[in-house]
Write a structure and sequence with these properties.
- The longest helix is centred in the first third of the chain and has 30 residues, at 4-33.
- Helices cover 15% and strands 43% of the residues.
- Strands 1-3-4-5-6-7-8-9 form an 8-stranded antiparallel beta barrel.
- By secondary structure, the chain is α+β, with helices and mostly antiparallel strands.
- The protein has 1 helix and 9 strands, in the order αβββββββββ.
């Protein structure tokens, strides 16, 4: 019995050492797993002071004729019987101009898709970039991802990011229909975009 007492005294010491080693091993493993991320100061990426910009332009959605800038690329079996066009997907490369006339100066293109996403009203899911080609924003693109109920007087869609001068962008776009041709389906939409960016 005297020989078994020293063995019993070693068990708590062994458990303490095992717990310490296991905790250390877990911390080392956790650190290895999280090496893919780190916190940076914005200045490390050359980001200075955030500013708010207002962009104003006209969006020309041309669905008719030989030079259409928006074309249907997919539809559901029920799309043609739906009163809202539910299930249709349209790819666009729409001109953006400084005035409502298509002949006015072009400042970029709206490139992306819109999908008819509502069964109860004409509601679109808009996924697009405003690809600017003029001035200081040439080559920079704010990105929109949002809902557009086209018969509402003013529609608001979020700016969810962007590239180049619009990296880390956030804000919103107000869309107001300027003209809509019921016969052809062509539309001119006025956009006022308010965006925070660096």
């Amino acid at each position: 019995m005297a020989n078994s007492l020293p063995k019993l005294k070693l068990i708590p010491t062994f458990l303490i050492l095992f717990t310490i080693f296991s905790s250390f091993s877990t911390l080392v493993t956790a650190k290895k797993i999280h090496l893919f991320s780190r916190t940076l100061a914005p200045s490390r990426l050359g980001l200075k002071r955030e500013k708010l910009s207002h962009l104003h332009f006209y969006f020309h959605d041309i669905v008719s004729g030989r030079n259409a800038t928006a074309v249907r690329v997919a539809e559901a079996a029920m799309t043609n019987t739906s009163s809202t066009g539910f299930g249709a997907v349209v790819m666009m490369d729409d001109p953006l101009t400084v005035r409502p006339q298509l002949s006015s100066k072009q400042v970029g293109r709206a490139q992306g898709i819109y999908a008819f996403a509502s069964q109860n009203e004409l509601g679109l899911l808009m996924v697009l970039n405003f690809a600017f080609t003029e001035g200081k924003y040439n080559g920079s693109n704010p990105s929109v991802l949002g809902r557009n109920t086209v018969f509402s007087a003013v529609r608001e869609m979020p700016i969810v990011g962007g590239s180049r001068l619009f990296r880390f962008a956030r804000g919103y776009a107000h869309a107001t229909t300027h003209t809509f041709d019921l016969k052809s389906g062509d539309a001119v939409v006025e956009y006022n975009v308010y965006v925070f960016h660096y």
